[in-house]
Structures are given as C-alpha cells and as structure tokens.
Amino acid sequence: MSMMPILVFVLSAFLGSYVQSVAGFAMGLLIIAIIGAVGLIKLTLVAAAVSLITMVNIVMSLRGRMGHLHGPLFRWIVLGQLLAVGPGLWLVTTLDASAERIL
User: Fold this and answer.
1) Residue 103: pLDDT above 60?
2) Which one of 1, 9, 14, 32 is at 20 to 30 Å from 20 when CA atoms are compared?
3) Cα 30 to chain center, whole Å?
4) The pLDDT value given to residue 7
C-alpha cells in the first residue's frame, strides 16, 4: 500500500474524531464518506477500522468515569463488539465479492 491511502485514512480519522468530540456523533459517517469518495481503500477494511476506532474513542471518553457504568453490562457490550468485528468483516468481504447489490 502506498503512502497516499494511509495519509487519506489518517486525515479522515482525525477529522471524524474531531467532529465526534464536538458534536457527539458522525465519526464513522465522515470517515466512510471521505474514503468512499476518494476510493483509495476498500470500504470493507475501513468499516472494520471504524469499529475499532469507535471502541477506542468510547474507552477514552469514559476514562475516569467507569464507576458510573454498570460494569457487567459494559463488559458484555465490549466483548460482543470485539467478537463481532471478525465475523462482520468476513460477511462484508463476502458480500463485497459476491453480492455487491445487496451490500
């Protein structure tokens, strides 16, 4: 992979993270919109990366406030998201290869 797709992804992630911190939403929307418009990286890879970036963003936002959360429920949610990234990436890749209209 050349440097240009990486640079575009990093810049879109910075922009999306900034908007997320100001507005409270839209990080994934911006990242996928920018990458989709530029078309340098497959959206399947970007979707998985956005899921992981979102989890990091949530953990950073909750730092110091973990006492206010319902611990067992939060752990189940995090575990579910971590376990769903792999199958979700596989499903999106499969749909991208064989069922583009559905995707």
Assistant:
1) no
2) 1
3) 11
4) 92
